[in-house]
Amino acid sequence: MLDFRKRMRSSARRNQSRVALALDLVGPHENRVSKAIGLLNDLVDKVACVKINQHLILPFGLQGLRELLQICNRKDVPVIADLKLNDVESTNLEAVDTLYKMGVDAVIANPFVGFDEGLGKVIERSRGIGKGVLLLVYMSHRGAKEGYDMKVDRKSLWRIFAQRVRSWNADGAIVSAKSPYRIREVRRMLLEDQLILTPGVGYQGGDAKKALDAGADMVIVGRSVIDSPKPGRALEEFRLLAQVP
Ligand code: XMP
User: Fold this and answer.
1) Is it the case that residue 61 has pLDDT exceeding 80?
2) Domain ranges, residue 147
3) Ligand 1: which of 24, 54, 110, 204 to mutate, judged by most atoms within 8 Å of the beta carbon?
4) For the domain that residue 51 is a member of, what is the CATH number?
């Protein structure tokens, strides 16, 4: 069984892409799943992984996303659920058990909740079955500084969170593309095979090339692709930014 990090890298190599496609469909609920499936059918062979969020999970649940998940599963393109998991262990475990049973490959979680009776067992269980846990280290919205830059014992919270990615043996970190400096620092702090995924490009103003050059493995792209009149062409622009060795 390949671990999640290897599966992500092998999918990126196979599809020659370092794009994590965020399927953040908005608009009338009744059109969202069919739109998402249409996008996936066109783009699934050109992305490293797919990220699903509240836009689809809340209105449809995982049952309602079965076909979408199957498209990714059949192509071996990992699916990440962006739940920013942040609860007690029993609830977190229930969430990931359901996600994994339904064909999701990884979850984004908030390291603030802690290891003991928080995320420790979630990470252990996930890794044991080739699934992944990515931890929020520095978010990309303007208010991120209000939380992630807070100091604890004179150390910034984001640095503490990056250390947690390493010491908890999580599969990677989410670090804002708007902060190549922090991406570089986090890259230095993580194990070589731990992943950095970076959101905040395009619509949010981050520069994908700078983020990848700073050490991110994959760039999370949502609206710049899915809202484009030519999603394939928009995706290609991000895809061309970085070779996959
Ligand atoms: P856009 O449309 O801005 O979508 O390309 C970005 C996607 O990523 C999510 N997002 C984040 N997720 N940490 C995360 O885990 C972040 O800092 C962050 N910033 C944006 C956003 O919800 C959307 O799905």
Assistant:
1) yes
2) 4-241
3) 24
4) 3.20.20.70
Q: Point out the catalytic residue in the list 75, 84, 121, 210.
A: 84
Distance (Å, rounded) from C-alpha 137 to C-alpha 172?
Answer: 9
pLDDT for 186: 98
Q: What is the pLDDT of residue 245?
A: 80
| Ligand 1 atom nearest to 223, measured from its CA | 2
| Ligand 1 lining (C-beta closer than 6 Å) | 22, 24, 53, 82, 84, 108, 136, 139-140, 174, 176, 199-200, 202-204, 220-224
> Per residue in 78-96, pLDDT tens?
999 999 999 999 999 999 9
Number of domains in the chain: 1
Indicate if 35 belongs to the active site.
no
Mean pLDDT of the region 156-167: 98
Q: CA 142 → CA 1, 21, 223, distances in Å? A: 40, 22, 18
Per-residue pLDDT, 176: 97
Between the two ends of the chain, the Cα-to-Cα distance in Å is 22
What's this model's pTM, rounded to 2 decimal places? 0.97
